[in-house]
Specification:
Strand order of the largest sheet of chain A: 3-9-10-16-13-12-11-24-25-23-22
Protein name (chains A, B): Proline--tRNA ligase
Pfam families (chains A, B): HGTP_anticodon, ProRS-C_1, tRNA-synt_2b
CATH superfamily of the largest domain in chain A: Bira Bifunctional Protein, Domain 2
Shape of chain A: globular
Main location (chains A, B): cytoplasm
Oligomer: homodimer
Family (chains A, B): Belongs to the class-II aminoacyl-tRNA synthetase family. ProS type 3 subfamily.
Distance between the termini of chain A: 41 Å
Structural class of chain A: alpha+beta
Largest sheet of chain A: 11 strands, mixed
Catalytic activity (chains A, B): tRNA(Pro) + L-proline + ATP = L-prolyl-tRNA(Pro) + AMP + diphosphate
Chain lengths: 497, 497
């Protein structure tokens, strides 16, 4: 038996100035959100991290259903041959597929188990890196008439991409996501769907996650493998790097032709369906951390937080604490009546200090401390995660005070992030200036001729990629920042996660 | 391009008398719940089937959280060596593991893709058949003190067991489930947890699914691989066969010792933790179908049904239908106010007959038909899925009429299932009588000496297994039905899915 198994449990959080990458990992550890697993590149999402993901799921799932989609579930495994049917798609994913080749283990003469060579599969399967192929195969059977359209399907699932350099939440071999897959009678309808779902993501990012984003179209080289057009929302992290936070794809008819998804239109003419797909993943958890947290730990925006308010009773051992608990219950029910998500931390064996510290690291927006001294003044102590001071607030108006604090915190987080995005987005006309400034991070609005050659050279020389061609072209394009040919549009260049 | 891709879409449902197995598959097809996939033994859960599974998830998830558990997420893949650590566990699962051996595909010179031999993994992974090993590995890091206990974790996940004979929902290579995994300081606490979660399952089965069950303990030979004790709820299907509907396991300290899950107790003495696990799966969908459905299709108990009431407006083409739609909206909002889950089927391109038939096959408990003729009498037509007649009910008391119909249907389904369970459970003392009667199905309460030898011989001779040793021993045990030695208990023997 071994002892003291968690020596680093209470290790301090590295500051952002000191080491931003280490700070990110420290926040995840300190908030008890997730950890690396014994499986290469795969993470374990711990209960607190998962409760935040469940909030993301619930809110987005409601939106996905409101917009007419239905959830379904398709197989984890995809026959190898399916992947090859759409040429760009297989090109994009073949290199990172986990492959199932056998269906049985057997006892090894040397102890333990070995793969049973007699249980080799005739055709190998890959673990889904994304589900277009297996879902489109179903669509080909489900769709036969215009009456079956639009077909609006969503799936919450685990997927796997064998990444070489992994980073918890941001790039893991296995991750969780939702993937929408739809089929339409016309190209216009498919385009409308793609735009609608990107807008759902934008609103979610900005209103729930307090994370302003730039919405726009990806350049051809950054498109999803098999898509005609890819749209994205891009957020700026605290270090000035971009994080792609949600994508929506017009797939055109490429997959329809590969999988024979046809329908008889109202004139009984056979047509290929127009497809879309769109998704967000547990990457959003990384975006959350790097949008709002500080050197003391995570900060969760109130609209997202599983726990918006934690109440910590201050107990005196050996004394009568009943008045404290009466008021704790009172405040709890006041909160519940006002739709505030509240948790009472009445654990034994933990000191008041340990509890306060834990909830601070976990980024719960509001902490209420209540003890005999507070009650003498018929008040409690309210601590906002984004403010430095402690406030005494009256018990009589406690729900109002908490609600106001939550509104303030949500606004503060959004405004800080918006301020960062604005102040660190640069409209430049000079390539050398760009090469110099990119070293400090930020988004760069640059005129681009549209040629992959220029995009590639910029990437090689600066490590910056085109995050998107924003829908809102605030400044007119001039000549390409690199080749000086006339440019039709500005693109946002940045280094990215 | 191919046409008429769904020739069997509207094929009639085989009657139960004709062919019970085919009837089961026909109901699934007719209700559009699920279908087989191109992946061996794996199913596709279609939107309607998935909406029922989502209801199961939501209701159980609330219960699991109310009882103090938190959700988390662990890797899909399990290092092969983990499986071997607990001897019984690997013995139970090695033969049905999908094995990941490579992490890359590459283009084949003959077209398509092949497994890249250079991307062979050093250690293979299996796709989780269940997650004890990977979760217990985490527990060994997460638990160090009595303050960390009890640790109460649940996971909703897909799992894979390479079954040779598969049957949609009942036995599929991939299925969805929840798996609870907990650690406790004492054996008593672990036993209490195991009993508590079995009770959660029992109440869910009986009160939500309207499915009476027998709760009890499994015989040693039917235990979960690695458990000290396994408890189960067993339901009787319409053909008299048993379906194991949920299990809860006392794992003792076997896994704790294999994975070194220790904690310092209050006296700073190191102890091994006591573990449990418990789960229900998409098998419950099979139990649902075979508990209640009839020759016209599925019947979903109102407490479970995603849609409790469907309203079908009767539209006259070319006429003014506004009065019908006004009343449809009125009834919808009346339903919503009373917490009734309602859906309006206002699809164009589908006839009234097609719609009625579809909802009947999908087993929606109540159908409301409303047309100009109904409105003349200020009434609507209410069709209950379990009654043969159509009722005219007044619009003024519509919510009450619907609520009453839902209560009646839930009771009817439970009572029918209870009546079946009672009338087809036989307390027998004579082995030859049992051998004769088992051919017609049913549960058999037989005295059993407790020896695996007798259990095995009975299984060989009758295909009946011990479903459980019921907690409620209504009839005292006599002598073992086979060996005639004194028996301490009666066990329920039955053929099972």
């Amino acid at each position: 038996m071994s002892n003291n198994k968690n020596p680093h449990k209470d290790k301090a959080i590295t500051t952002r100035d000191e080491d931003y990458s280490q700070w990110y990992l420290d926040v995840i550890r300190a908030a008890d959100m997730a950890e690396n697993s014994p499986v290469r590149g795969a993470m374990i999402i711990k209960p607190y991290g998962f409760s935040i993901w469940e909030r993301i799921q619930r809110i987005l799932d409601d939106k996905i259903k409101e917009t007419g989609h239905q959830n379904a579930y398709f197989p984890l495994l995809i026959p190898k041959s399916f992947l090859s049917r759409e040429a760009d798609h297989v090109e994009g994913f073949a290199k990172e597929c986990a492959v199932v080749t056998h269906h049985r283990l057997k006892a090894s003469p040397e102890g333990g188990v070995i793969v049973d060579p007699d249980a080799k599969l005739e055709e190998e399967y890959v673990i889904r890196p994304t589900s277009e192929t297996i879902i489109h195969d179903s669509f080909s059977r489900w769709i036969s008439s215009y009456r079956d359209l639009p077909m609006l399907i969503n799936q919450w699932a685990n997927v796997m991409r064998w990444e070489m350099r992994t980073r918890i939440f941001l790039r893991t071999s296995e991750f969780l996501w939702q993937e929408g897959h739809t089929a339409h009678a016309t190209q216009d309808e498919a385009a409308e769907e793609t735009a609608k779902m990107l807008e759902v993501y934008r609103v979610f990012a900005e209103e729930v996650m307090a994370m302003p984003v730039i919405a726009g179209e990806k350049s051809p080289s950054e498109r999803f493998a098999g898509a005609n057009k890819t749209f994205t929302i891009e957020a700026m992290m605290q270090d000035g790097k971009a994080l792609q936070s949600g994508t929506s794809h017009e797939l055109g008819q490429g997959f329809s032709k590969a999988f024979n998804i046809t329908f008889l239109d109202q004139e009984s003419k056979e047509q290929y369906a127009w497809l879309t797909s769109w998704g967000v993943s547990t990457r959003l958890m990384g975006a959350l951390i790097m949008s709002h947290s500080d050197d003391r730990g995570l900060i969760v925006p109130p609209a997202l937080a599983p726990t918006q308010v934690v109440i910590i009773p201050i107990i005196k051992e050996g004394k009568d604490n009943s008045e404290v608990f009466t008021h704790v219950d009172l405040i709890k029910s006041e909160c519940a009546q006002n739709g505030i998500r509240v948790h009472i931390d009445d654990r034994d064996h933990f000191t008041f200090g340990e509890k306060s510290y834990e909830w601070e690291k976990k980024g719960v927006p509001v902490r209420i401390e209540i003890g005999p001294r507070d009650l003498e003044n018929h008040s409690v102590t309210l601590v906002s995660r984004t403010a430095d001071d402690k406030q005494q607030v009256s018990i009589d108006s406690i729900a109002d005070s908490i609600s106001q604090a939550l509104v303030d915190i949500q606004a503060t987080l959004y405004n800080n992030a918006q301020e960062r995005l604005t102040s660190r987005t640069f409209v430049l006309e000079n390539y050398n200036e760009f090469k110099e400034k990119i070293e400090a991070g930020g988004f760069f609005s640059l005129s681009w001729c549209g040629e992959a050659k220029c995009e590639d050279q910029i990437k090689d020389e600066t490590k910056a990629t085109i995050r998107c061609i924003p829908f809102e072209q605030n400044t007119p394009a001039t000549n390409c920042i690199l080749c000086d040919q006339p440019a039709k549009q500005r693109a946002i260049f940045a280094r990215a996660y």
